[in-house]
Amino acid sequence: MSPATPTPTDKTSLKDKTMAAAPKTSQTDRMDHYTYSNYNDVRMTHLSLDLDVDFDKKILSGSAIIDFKPLKANAHILKLDTHDLEISSVQGYTRDGAWVAMDYALRDKDPVKGTMLSIPFSKGTHKVRIHYKTSPKAGGLQWLEPSQTKDGKFPYLFSQNQTIFARSMAPLQDTPAVRITYDATLRVPKGLRALMSAKQLGQDETGAWHFEMPQPIPSYLIAIAVGEIDYKPIDEHTGVYAEPYILEKAAYEFEDTPETEKAMSALYGPYRWGQYDMLILPPSFPFGGMENPRLTFLTPTLIVGDKSLVDVVTHELAHSWSGNLVTNATWRDSWLNEGFTTYVENRVTEATEGKRRADMEQVLAMDGLKRDIREAKKPEMTWLKMPADMHHPDEAFSLVAYNKGMFFLMFLEDRFGRDTFDAFLKSYFDHFAFKSITTEDFLDYFKANLMEKYPGKVTMEEVNAWIYGPGLPPTVRKVHSDAFAAVQAQLDKWTSGKISVAQLDTAKWTTQEWLYFLNRLP
Description:
Blueprint: H1 14-21, E1 42-54, E2 59-70, E3 77-82, E4 86-93, E5 99-101, E6 105-110, E7 114-120, E8 127-133, E9 141-144, E10 156-159, E11 179-187, E12 193-196, E13 199-203, E14 209-218, E15 224-227, E16 230-235, E17 238-242, H2 247-253, H3 257-268, E18 276-280, E19 289-290, E20 295-298, H4 311-318, E21 326-328, H5 335-353, H6 355-375, H7 399-416, H8 418-431, E22 435-437, H9 439-451, H10 460-467, H11 482-495, H12 511-519
Parallel strand pairs: 1-11, 17-18, 18-20, 21-22
Antiparallel strand pairs: 1-2, 2-8, 3-7, 4-5, 4-8, 6-7, 9-10, 10-15, 11-14, 12-15, 13-14, 16-17, 19-20
InterPro entries: Aminopeptidase_N-like_N, Aminopeptidase_N-like_N_sf, LTA4H_cat, M1_LTA4H, Peptidase_M1, Peptidase_M1_dom, Peptidase_M4/M1_CTD_sf
Family: Belongs to the peptidase M1 family.
Cofactor: Zn(2+)
C-alpha cells in the first residue's frame, strides 16, 4: 500500500490530507534558498568569460564580465555567488567607456552555498569585470591526468555544474531562476580542443577558442570540456565529439538521434537550439548524461554496439524542451525539469520503438520509484514539490522528481485524453519558452488552460495529492507489460523449482527484460 493511500484505521480523508498539504502560494514558495544573489533586486543578463585553462595548476584564470540591470529603483548592490574563487579585482564600466576599480566584499562563507561576492554600484553602472581564478578543488570542474584517458597522452577537463556548482567556475547569480546569454574565449594547451555548451565559433590565429550562446540559459547549463577530442557529423546539425578511439562507435550508436528529434518536434514543437551535438566523456564522468544545450555530455558506457541504451540520449534530448527551454526556477521544483523530460522520453520511445518498449520502461520506472519512496528519509522527500529544508539541492534528484513526475503527467493524459494533453504541453512549452517557472506557475497555467477548459476531468484535491502529498496517490496509472509478464512466468517457474536455470529461455531478452528479471530475484 502506498503511503498516500489511507489505511483502514486512518480517519483522515485523502481530501483533508491533500488540502492540508497544499501550501498557499507565497513569495517563499517561489524563492531559491540556495543562492546568495539578490536576483529579484538586480538581475544578471549576460556573462563574458576570458579564461586560461591551466592543467598543471588545475585552475581556470582570467576574467568574467557581467552585464546586469537593476529591477528596483533603490537597488545599489550586486550580490553574486562564488565557491572557492580567488578574486583579485573588480572593475566597473563607466558611462565614459572606461573600466574603474570598484569596492567589493566576500562574506557569509557557507560549506554548501559558498561565499557571497557583494559589489556596491552607482547609478548608471550596469557592467562589472571580475578578475579571478578557480580552485584546484572546484566542485564543478573535473581535472583528469593523461592516465585517466583511454590513449593516456593528454589531460582532460570537463565540468558538471548542476545543481549549484557553476559558482565554482565563475562568479555569477547561480540560480535556475536567472537566465543569461554568454560568450567565452578559452586558451588551452596546443593540440587540445575546447568545447562549451554554446555555438562553437572555432579558433583564432592565436589558437584561442571562441563560443557564443545567444539563447538565455540558467547558469547550471554552462559547460566546458577540453581534451583530445575529434568530431564526426551525423547530419547537418547533429554530431558526436569524442576521443579518437571511440568516435566511430559512438557515431554509429547514436546515428538515429535525428529521427528521435523529429519525433519530439512533431509532438512538442520545433527544436530551438540550432545544433545538437553529443560529447562522449571519459569513464570518470559520474552520470549517464547531462543535457547541456547544444552539447549533451554522455558516459561512454552507453556505447554497447546494439543501441540498447540510447534511451539516455532520448532523455537528454527531451531536456531541450523540458528543462532547458522551460526551467525549474528553484531546485524544489526539479520535477518540472525531470518529470516532464521522463514523460517526453517515454512518449517518444513509444513513437520510435513501439508501445511494447514504452510499457516496459513504465514498469521499470514504477519499480525504481517505489524503491525510492520506501527509502526516503522523510515523507516530504516524496512530494513533487520538494521541502524547503533540504541540506543541498542535489537531494531533489531522486526518482521522485523523474518518475513520480512522469506518472503525474500520465495521470493527466489519462484523464484529459492524449490529443488534448499533447496540445496543452505544446502550448506550455511555447508559453514559457526561455523562462524559469515554479510549480505554482505551472499550476496556474494548468488550471487556466486545461482544468477550466475541460471541467470535471480532475479535481484540485487529486492534483494536490500528487504535488504536495507523499508517496503515490490512488489515482496512479496501473502499469503493465506483456513482455515482462512472460519473464515473470519463467521466473515463477524457476523460483518454484519447476525449471532449472539452464531451462530459462533468455536468448532474445532485451536489456529491459534482464533488468526486470534481476530486480525480482529472491
